[in-house]
Design goal:
Layout (H helix, E strand, L loop, with lengths): L1 H19 L7 E4 L1 H4 L5 E6 L5 E5 L2 E5 L4 E4 L7 E7 L2 E6 L2 E7 L5 E5 L16 E5 L2 E6 L2 E6 L2 E6 L3 E7 L2 E6 L4 E4 L5 E3 L14 E5 L2 E5 L4 E5 L2 E4 L3 H10 L1 E8 L2 E6 L4 E5 L5 E4 L10 E7 L2 E6 L3 E5 L4 E5 L8 E7 L2 E6 L2 E6 L2 E4 L7 E6 L4 E5 L2 E6 L2 E6 L4 E6 L6 E6 L3 E5 L5 E3 L9 E4 L4 E6 L3 E8 L2 E7 L12 E5 L2 E6 L2 E6 L4 E4 L9 E6 L4 E5 L5 E4 L5 E4 L15 E5 L2 E6 L2 E6 H9 L7 E6 L12 E2 L6 E7 L8 E6 L3 E5 L5 E5 L4 E9 L7 E10 L7 H87 L7 H15 L2 H14 L3 H8 L5 H11 L4 H8 L3 H15 L7 H8 L1
Parallel strand pairs: 58-64
Antiparallel strand pairs: 1-28, 2-3, 3-4, 4-5, 6-7, 7-8, 8-9, 10-11, 11-12, 12-13, 14-15, 15-16, 16-17, 18-19, 19-20, 20-21, 22-23, 23-24, 24-25, 26-27, 27-28, 29-56, 30-31, 31-32, 32-33, 34-35, 35-36, 36-37, 38-39, 39-40, 40-41, 42-43, 43-44, 44-45, 46-47, 47-48, 48-49, 50-51, 51-52, 52-53, ...
Length: 914
């Protein structure tokens, strides 16, 4: 009865220990079935030389390359029970099935079954639960025997019921149920291990694990160590009771003195052989499930195959986390270590944290902005006022309004300024008096002293204020205009090296007291978007507002980055805070607890030369995937969307990028799922580099791949040859066309020359005829005028003779002379000569006028011809042998015959129309 009670107490003690073991834990990452898209149950897990994870899953072989999960199924759909990477092969065992997976030249995992090599081994209901290698030989085990694969041949080397096997000192050690352990010789015979192993007789050996010259042996309720021929049982009541109640399933050692124990009922226990300390990682501390079916350790990471999901514990991480799963703590805003205790300021109050126990200070409930240790006193800036912690008591200093900060007045150790929701108050510690500063009636989140008479105040929403005073009397408040183009929301104030510095809208500014204005702070020019969290003598700590990472720098040689993903993206957004209680420790506030950073270990981890690995798993376009061992040439029509799958175990995705070199250079980040899409590339040769740039200064190429994109069909070689032929043909056609055009042009020039020659001849002939006509016109005019003159003279003679006709004695002679003169005046021959000359000058005149006026007499025609020549009545009269009056009368009659209006000039009418 006493033993049972003692046993119950031990179990309760272990349970309580387990409950508090979560106080500071390494990072635990859960991979849920919905994430890796396969069955919940995973039977085994292993890591290959590159760091790629392989898990034996109920639906097949799970592969995790650090960025993406992929499930490879057996054709039979069998459950895979064991997995073992060996070089480029991944061996797996399942129900009556054994074989290996290997990637082909296109990156696809292909299964090669070896079961046909076991055709004559009379397998029963064998499932292969574990696989080991010894040199080039592969051993695999079922409960019914041990098998050896060598030289493409499989032999059954043991036919006994085995529960575990392990390679130890180049020998295969096998645990037989209740009969201890032995090793196989080269002749496949059983051989006892050196030393006294009698303590193992009758025990059901569950697991074996070898590290260097030490073999760890686990039974249901005991742990043994075999080294240098000696078997030692670990005598630890707490450990043995834990093993008995939790059901040991796996053993794994990460160092000479630390053992990890995977159990069926209580997750993983870490046991220190020196201190006998037992630390638990189970469902309470963040594992998805307490049933550990497989374990593997690689680069400080412990991988667990669970009954539900897969988990990763970064055991060597310099970060340790406290996570409050109950929700009692809430988001943590500040942390201070004060008089041996750790105080947490959160949105639920002030909590003390000591020896794994968290307790809320009575009266501190409500939102707490921060904690301040001033002059060895702990003050609390609370939503309801400002308080002081003394002997675990929450003592109010002022409760009228909430407070943001408390600052000691320089030169006066008893005076403090309180930045409050409604202004600034002065607190005199000696008297306990608190009074408000008049003129400051706005919220003040930060206070920085420029000198004894000037202080700066940061409004949480409306920017900066400069406050001048005389011993806090005669206060003058000046609001500064916005710095930059937008309003100054959430200004952060600092005083560095005697200068007033502020961070607002992702930019840094420095106050110039001579110009009384803010200007760019050039020393922090390269830190755009980085808010200062801590400034100490050796390190400045910044928070990148864009990606949430934390940067540690001494502005000389050291620059360390802590990505937000390492903190599981749990920072309190817009209120990120980092506290340094000592030189080697930092506290980081989180939205459900806090993280503790061992800065020395973080520096060592950053400086260690761990060979980062990244590789290209698949490369394809819209048509197919391509050989990863060659430099393919892609068809232009299928290269519009090139897909590249990248694997990168143990590398932070934020530190991974790609560079594509072609006619131009492209850079960018790789997708969260490890896929990279290259779209609409032009044809040509390309080189793809996968780059690791952890420190943002040196970039290391981890993987390379070269490929080419063929030109489109219209730019291919044969089309270019065709273009050359077409060009030559085009030149020939152009030549022939030009030649024909030249000939045609030459012919046109000849015709034009001939036409111009004919025109020139015609123009010469025309000019000759015109000149001739002009000459004839002049001759006609001259002859006409001469005839008119002659007739005029003759008529004057006739008139003179008529006057003196009675004085002539011979009247007959007189009459004869008169008749001759009259005949000479009216000579028909003279008219014919005139008519002939007139027709030569005015061709068809008489014909045309008779057509129009057929009733005209010869005398009318004669008058018309004289009028056509533009002769006056006086000039016409002698030609017609009549008086001027007679001409006028004749003209009148002619107008009548031609039916002309009185206002129409007869002469002009004839000249114009005929």
């Amino acid at each position: 009865m006493i033993y049972k009670i003692f046993k119950i107490l031990i179990i309760i003690f272990i349970a309580l220990n387990a409950a508090y073991a979560q106080e500071l834990l390494p990072p635990i990452q859960n991979y849920k079935p919905a994430l890796y898209n396969a069955a919940s149950q995973n039977w085994d897990i292993a890591v290959d030389d590159r760091g790629v994870i392989f898990a034996a899953n109920n639906q097949g072989l799970l592969e995790f390359d650090g960025l993406s999960w992929e499930l490879h199924k057996l054709e039979s759909g069998s459950i895979i029970r064991s997995v073992f990477p060996n070089g480029e092969r991944i061996y797996t065992g399942s129900f009556r099935e054994f074989g290996y997976w290997q990637t082909d030249e296109k990156g696809k995992m292909v299964y090669h079954s070896l079961s046909e090599l076991m055709a004559g081994l009379e397998l029963q209901s064998d499932e292969f639960w574990s696989i080991e290698s010894l040199g080039e030989t592969i051993y695999f085990r079922s409960f019914g025997g041990v098998f050896k694969y060598e030289n493409n041949e499989i032999l059954k080397v043991q036919n006994h019921i085995s529960t575990a096997m392990e390679v130890f000192k180049d020998r295969l050690v096998i645990a037989e149920r209740s009969k201890g352990i032995y090793y196989l010789t080269n002749e496949n015979t059983r051989q006892e291990l050196e030393g006294d192993l009698s303590d193992l007789e009758g025990l059901n050996i569950i697991e074996l694990f070898a590290l260097n010259d030490t073999l760890y042996i686990g039974s249901k309720n005991s742990l043994f160590i075999y080294s240098e021929g000696e078997l030692t049982k670990i005598e630890d009541i707490e450990l043995n009771e834990f093993l008995s109640e939790s059901e040991l399933n796996h053993i794994l050692s990460v160092s000479e003195r630390k053992v990890l124990i995977g159990t069926i009922k209580n997750g993983v226990a870490e046991y220190d052989l020196d201190t006998k300390e037992l630390r638990f990682y189970n469902r309470i501390e963040g594992l998805q499930n307490n049933t550990v079916l497989g374990m593997s350790y690689h680069q400080g990471n412990l991988w667990l195959a669970l009954d539900k999901g897969i988990d990763k514990l970064h055991l060597d991480s310099p970060l340790k986390f406290f996570t409050d799963h109950s929700g009692e703590l809430g988001a943590v805003y500040d942390i201070e270590e004060f008089k041996g205790k750790t105080y947490l300021a959160s949105n639920t109050g002030v909590h003390t944290f000591q020896n794994g126990e968290m307790r809320l200070l009575e009266g501190s409930q409500d939102h707490v902005w921060n904690l301040e240790i001033v002059d060895d006193q702990l003050f609390v800036n609370h939503n309801t006022g400002i308080y002081q912690v003394q002997n675990e008591q929450f003592i109010p200093v002022k409760k009228r309004t909430g407070s943001f900060c408390i600052v000691q007045v320089p030169g006066n150790e008893s005076l403090y300024l309180l930045g409050e929701y409604t202004g600034i108050s002065i607190y005199d510690q000696n008297t306990g008096e608190v009074r408000e500063i008049e003129g400051v009636n706005f919220p003040v989140k930060q206070i920085v002293f420029e000198n004894d008479e000037v202080l700066w105040a940061a409004h949480p929403y409306e920017g900066l204020y400069r406050i001048t005073h005389n011993n806090f009397q005669n206060v003058e408040v000046l609001k500064l205009p916005a710095l930059g183009e937008t309003e100054n929301y959430r200004v952060n104030l600092y005083k560095l090296n005697g200068q007033i510095i502020c961070f607002v809208n992702a930019n840094w500014y420095r106050y110039n007291p001579f110009k009384e204005t803010f200007e760019e702070f050039k020393e922090f020019k390269d830190l755009k978007g980085f808010r200062l969290l801590q400034d100490t003598s050796d390190y400045f700590v910044f928070n990148n507002e864009e990606d949430g990472s934390i940067l540690f720098t001494d502005f000389d040689k050291s620059k360390l980055a802590l990505s937000a993903s390492l903190l599981d993206n749990r920072l309190v957004k817009a209120n990120e805070n980092l506290i340094r209680p000592n030189d080697s420790t930092y506290y980081i506030t989180l939205n459900d607890g806090f993280a503790k950073l061992d800065f020395s270990a973080f520096q060592v981890m950053d400086s260690e030369e761990w060979e980062s690995v990244a590789f290209i798993k698949k490369f394809g376009d819209n048509d197919d995937y391509y050989d990863l061992t060659s430099s393919p040439t892609l068809k232009y029509r299928t290269s519009g969307n090139i897909s590249v799958q990248v694997g990168a175990p143990d590398i932070n995705l934020d530190e991974l990028s790609y560079r594509l070199k072609g006619d131009e250079e492209y850079t960018g980040k790789i997708g969260n799922d490890g896929w990279l899409n290259l779209r609409n590339l032009s044809y040509g040769d390309y080189a793809l580099d996968i780059i690791y740039d952890s420190d943002q200064e040196s970039k290391k190429i981890l993987a390379k791949y070269s490929f080419a994109i063929a030109p489109p069909w219209y730019l291919s070689a044969w089309m270019k040859a065709l273009y050359v032929l077409l060009f030559i043909a085009l030149i020939a056609v152009v030549f022939l066309i030009n030649r024909k055009k030249l000939r045609k042009h030459q012919q046109k020039l000849e015709e034009k020359f001939e036409n111009e020659h004919q025109e020139r001849l015609a123009r010469i002939e025309h000019d000759r005829l015109v000149n001739e006509i002009d000459l004839k016109r002049k001759e006609l005019a001259n002859t006409t005028m001469m005839a008119a003159k002659k007739n005029e003279v003759l008529m004057e003679i006739q008139s003179e003779l008529s006057k003196d006709k009675n004085s002539f004695s011979n009247q007959y002679r007189m009459k004869h002379i008169m008749n001759k003169i009259n005949a000479a005046v009216k000579s028909k021959d003279e008219w014919k000569v005139f008519e002939t000359n007139f027709n030569e000058v005015h061709e068809d005149f008489f014909k045309d006028i008779l057509v129009e006026y057929p009733k005209l007499s010869s005398k009318d025609l004669k008058l018309c011809s004289y009028l056509k020549m533009n002769l006056s009545s006086k000039e016409i009269a002698p030609l017609m042998g009549i008086s001027v009056r007679g001409v006028e009368v004749h003209r009148y009659r002619l107008r009548k015959k031609m039916a002309l209006e009185s206002d129409v000039n007869l002469t002009k009418f004839l000249i114009k129309n005929f």
